[in-house]
Write a structure and sequence with these properties.
- The chain is an alpha/beta fold.
- 31% of the residues lie in helices and 24% in strands.
- It contains twelve helices and 17 strands.
- A hairpin with a 2-residue loop joins strand 10 and strand 11.
- It is globular, with a radius of gyration of 23 Å.
- 46% of the residues are buried.
- Bound molecules: ligand LLP.
- The site of ligand LLP has 20 residues, from helix 10.
Length: 407
């Protein structure tokens, strides 16, 4: 992104998220193109960045949406994603969410347990509709990623075993209100090795073949998300190799390939800008205190995740090690540890890289801090896509209850 960051900061202030929409386009086209002429749908994982403008941009390119709450389904619809390109996953859906998803007539509801299947069947019966479903299979494959974002092992809460999946398909096939047309797996996030994906695809493709043998026709083969990105010096999987690996495992199957990329699409399309407040030294430790914090970008505090941090307009200056910390009252509130930085002054700007995915969406109001503004850059122009949250925004739902509290 070739941006005049100083101008953007003057215009929008900090902390600030900035997304390069041209970069998102390129990422989408590369992945979609990798599947060539094969039937495929890129269902963007809305959880990674659910700003309406981001979803709208992807919807205009033809993307679908992978959603994990009815809120995300409604965001996708509002942003213009076609209902037949929306899937609803998640390990625990409330009745009201299932009902609304059925009423909205989206492509697939993804089931994660036998109990959930029965709920969906019951609600579909009440509504007198047939629920198009897929079943999330847990292929018990080690994705070789951070344990918090690993999901495809039996020890994780996601999906069902191959055996119970088969039982569920047989049940669903007989049900008047269930139409089992999809199969799904997602083994983890930030995957940088292809072999676990290939292995999982092979296992799930075999299940599809055995279902076919008993008359259950799976039309959607959902490989989940998980494509890793470069935060530091990782070697990542090229979309072309990813697609090739998947296609090699599903030979002979007449299915549409669904993929659910989030991080791949957004992480490196986004940066987070924060201004320096002060510097200080405690003993031998140097701290650069900034106006962005764990409530804005939680990944470093929660996962110990690395995000490259760079000072703007400080090229050539001598650097030393510092921790970049925010104003939140937690020792775990840091954006970077042991970062090489030049001497920083009040109002200097730091760029936190690779912040487009799971950045804003995981932000909170902790310490009554308003959430950041978000800006899109498209063809060299900047567009405000979310206003900075004000104090009034934060207290609105409490103020409206003022009269309830009589003490
Ligand atoms: N599909 C399913 C069913 C998922 O659970 C996820 C992510 C995705 C797709 C998208 O995965 P991606 O392509 O983004 O890897 N907050 C964590 C990441 C949690 C991912 C949860 N599931 C982080 O900041 O690293």
């Amino acid at each position: 992104m070739s941006l005049d960051i100083t101008t953007l900061v003057k215009k929008y202030n900090t902390p600030l998220y900035i997304y390069d929409f041209n970069n998102i386009t390129n990422r989408y086209e590369e992945l979609k193109g990798a599947f060539g002429g094969k039937k495929s749908l890129v269902a963007y994982a809305v959880k990674s960045n659910s700003n309406l403008a981001v979803i709208r941009h992807l919807a205009n390119l033809g993307a679908g949406a992978d959603c994990v709450s009815i809120g995300e389904v409604n965001r996708a619809l509002k942003a213009g994603v076609k209902k037949y390109r929306i899937i609803f996953s998640g390990v625990g859906k409330r009745d009201s969410e299932i009902r609304e998803a059925l009423e909205r007539d989206i492509l697939l509801i993804n089931l994660e347990s036998e109990a959930e299947m029965k709920r969906v069947e019951m609600i579909a019966k009440e509504l007198n509709v047939e629920a198009r479903i897929s079943i999330r299979v847990n292929p018990n494959v080690d994705p070789k990623t951070h344990p918090y974002i690993s999901t495809g092992l039996h020890e994780n809460k996601f999906g069902v075993s191959l055996d119970s999946a088969k039982r569920m398909y047989i049940y669903a096939k007989k049900s008047e209100h269930l139409n089992p047309i999809g199969i799904h797996f997602h083994i983890g996030s930030q995957l940088t090795e292809l072999s676990p994906i290939t292995e999982a695809c092979g296992i799930v493709a075999d299940l599809v073949r055995s279902l076919d043998a008993i008359g259950i026709d799976i039309k959607f083969f959902d490989v989940g998300g998980g494509l890793g990105v470069v935060y530091d010096d990782e070697t990542t999987i090229r979309p072309a190799d990813y697609a090739k690996a998947i296609l090699s495992q599903i030979k002979g199957l007449d299915v549409t390939i669904l993929s659910e990329p989030g991080r791949y699409m957004m992480a490196n399309a986004g940066i987070f800008l924060t201004s320096v407040l002060y510097e200080k030294v405690n003993g031998k430790k140097r701290f650069v205190i900034v106006d962005g914090a764990m409530n804005d970008l939680l990944r470093p505090s929660l996962y110990g995740a690395y995000h490259k941090i760079e000072a703007i307009r400080k090229e050539g200056e001598e650097k030393s090690i510092a921790d970049v910390v925010g104003p939140v009252c937690e020792s775990g509130d840091f954006l970077g540890k042991n970062v090489m930085l030049p001497k920083m002054n009040h109002h200097d700007i730091l760029v936190v890289h690779s912040a487009g995915a799971y950045g804003f969406t995981m932000s909170s109001n902790y310490n009554t801090r308003g959430r950041s503004a978000e800006v899109a850059i498209f063809d060299g122009k900047d567009y405000l896509i979310r206003e900075r949250e004000t104090f009034e925004d934060q207290i609105r739902l409490e103020e409206s209850c003022d009269s309830n509290w009589q003490s």
